[in-house]
Amino acid sequence: MFIFTHIFAGAVFGLVLGWFLHDTRIFPLCVAASILPDVIDKPLGFIFLPDDLGPGRTFFHALLAVMLITAIAYLVWRFRRSILVFLVAGSVMLHQILDAMWHEPVIWFYPLLGPFQPYHYINYFGTFFWLEVSSASEWVFFFATIVVFSLVYIDRIILSLPQWIAHRTMPARYAVLLLLVFIGLYSLWSGSTGTLNMMTPYNTPENNLIMGIVALAGFCTLIAFMNITRQAED
Q: Would the pTM count as exceeding 0.85?
């Protein structure tokens, strides 16, 4: 999955957990941890150890990383009574699920199935940058992520905006939600029927189903929290 799919999923995850646990630190932590595997593995594989690693999915795309973070989380909870590191483990696991890492068992179950098998892309960053900016689904997830941030930091954001912009935030939110539900339903349809998804360059049925689930889960969560916010304002 592309970066804003991961960020949006992490933002929704953090929004829900932050609300249930009443901890404002959870949201930014989940957002940051949701892209942690790419932040670590891609520079490591493409810049520092290209001959040994290569593909950009290595250590933090392996279950071993989740297990180690969970072990650290247990120690932190044991001595500090904080569950925050558990949420990092959960966000990293969410990233791996969205990347469908079960299709790359050598990486996911590293080191049980042997060492990483490096392979190389020609102009990786240029190619994937273009795929990112030309993907309609990524733009929808980008704007949907802004909606999530506006719900979390609504008081700071709305009060800092000029009044004429603040009055237009609600229609903009609903426009993004309509796009989000469209992407979700369209992706589920594409994935279940095996047809071409015009909204994304990733066109395996499984990727389309995963993207559809992320979009619709995010839509339902945002609708629920917008209603909660409205009731709180009333």
A: yes
